[in-house]
Automatic annotation (TrEMBL):
Statement: the UniProt record of this protein carries the keyword Amino-acid biosynthesis: yes
Family according to the record: Belongs to the TrpC family.
Originating species: Jannaschia rubra
Pathway of action: Amino-acid biosynthesis; L-tryptophan biosynthesis; L-tryptophan from chorismate: step 4/5
Protein name, entry field: Indole-3-glycerol phosphate synthase
Known EC number: 4.1.1.48
Length: 270
C-alpha cells in the first residue's frame, strides 16, 4: 500500500470537512450569508493596474505549512494585513485551512476589515457550497487548484465564483494542468512553483509554463519567491504578479520587507 501524498491527505480530510459543514448549514443558509457579506472588491483588476509599471503582489497571511511547520509565532492577521498594505501589497491571500496550515475562517474577515485590499481565500475547494461560504467570509477571489480537482469540478467552481461576482485564480503546476485549464474562462492563471504532492519548489516551473500559457491570461507566479532578484528573474518571462507568503511571514518588520521586495521593479518592455 502506497503512502498518500500531502495533497491526497489534504483532499481526504477536506472532503469530510465539507460534508460536515454542509450538514450543519444548508445551501439556503450559506447563500443568505454570502448575500449579506461586504461588496466584492475587484481582485484581478487590482493586479492588472499594479503590474502596468510595477509588480502586482498578493501577500499571504499564513501561520504554518505541512512541510515547514509553524512559520510565524507572532501571528496577528489584522496587524499583518495592515503591514502588507503599508508595504505596498496589491491584494491579500489568507489561509483558512486548519489541519495543515493552522488557518481559520475568522482570519479572512479580520484581515479584510483592516484594509481596502481585495482578498483571496486560500483553501482547497471542491464544492460550489464552499464558494458561497468563501463569499460569506468576505473573500473577493477563490483558488481553483487543478492538481486537486477534475475538469468538471474546476468549471463548476469557476461558474459559482462568477455567479457571486468573484474572481477565480486558476492554479497549475505542470503542462498537463496548464492544458486542462485552457477550457476555463478566468483571466487569472497562477503558476505554482511548488509540487503539492511533495511540497518541493522550483522556479523553473514558472519559466517553463509562462512560455506556454495563453496570451490572454494574467500570470501569477506562486511559491519559492524570496528576493527582488527572484522577482526580476521571473519578470523577464513576462510574469509581473506574484503570490508570496513564507518569506515575508518570517520577517520581523513586515512593512519594510514588503516595501523592499517591491522596490526597483524590472521595467516592462514596451
Amino acid at each position: 500500500m502506497t503512502t498518500p501524498t500531502i495533497l491526497e491527505r489534504i483532499k481526504a480530510y477536506k472532503l469530510d470537512e465539507i460534508a460536515a459543514r454542509k450538514a450543519e448549514r444548508d445551501q439556503t443558509s450559506i447563500e443568505a450569508a454570502a448575500r449579506a457579506a461586504p461588496a466584492v472588491r475587484p481582485f484581478a483588476d487590482a493586479l492588472l493596474q499594479a503590474k502596468i509599471e510595477g509588480y502586482g503582489l498578493i501577500a499571504e497571511i499564513k501561520k504554518a505549512s505541512p512541510s515547514k511547520g509553524v512559520i510565524r509565532n507572532d501571528f496577528d492577521p489584522p496587524a499583518l494585513a495592515r503591514a502588507y498594505a503599508a508595504g505596498g501589497a496589491t491584494c491579500l491571500s489568507v489561509l483558512t485551512d486548519g489541519p495543515s496550515f493552522q488557518g481559520d475562517d475568522s482570519y479572512l474577515g479580520a484581515a479584510r476589515a483592516e484594509v481596502d485590499l481585495p482578498v483571496l481565500r486560500k483553501d482547497f475547494l471542491f464544492d460550489p457550497w464552499q464558494v458561497a461560504e468563501s463569499r460569506s467570509l468576505g473573500a473577493d477571489c477563490i483558488l481553483i487548484i487543478m492538481a486537486a480537482v477534475s475538469d468538471a469540478q474546476a468549471a463548476e467552481l469557476e461558474a459559482a465564483a462568477a455567479d457571486w461576482g468573484m474572481d477565480a485564480l486558476i492554479e497549475v503546476h505542470d503542462r498537463e494542468e496548464l492544458e486542462r485549464s485552457s477550457h476555463l474562462n478566468s483571466r487569472l492563471l497562477g503558476i505554482n512553483n511548488r509540487n503539492l504532492n511533495t511540497f518541493e519548489t522550483d522556479l523553473q516551473v514558472t519559466r517553463d509554463l509562462s512560455r506556454r500559457a495563453p496570451e490572454d491570461r494574467m500570470l501569477v507566479s506562486e511559491s519559492g519567491l524570496n528576493t527582488r532578484e527572484d522577482l526580476a528573474g521571473i519578470a523577464r518571462y513576462g510574469v509581473r504578479c506574484f503570490l508570496i507568503g513564507e518569506s515575508l511571514m518570517r520577517q520581523e518588520d513586515v512593512v519594510a520587507a514588503t516595501r523592499d521586495l517591491l522596490a526597483s521593479p524590472m521595467v516592462p518592455v514596451r
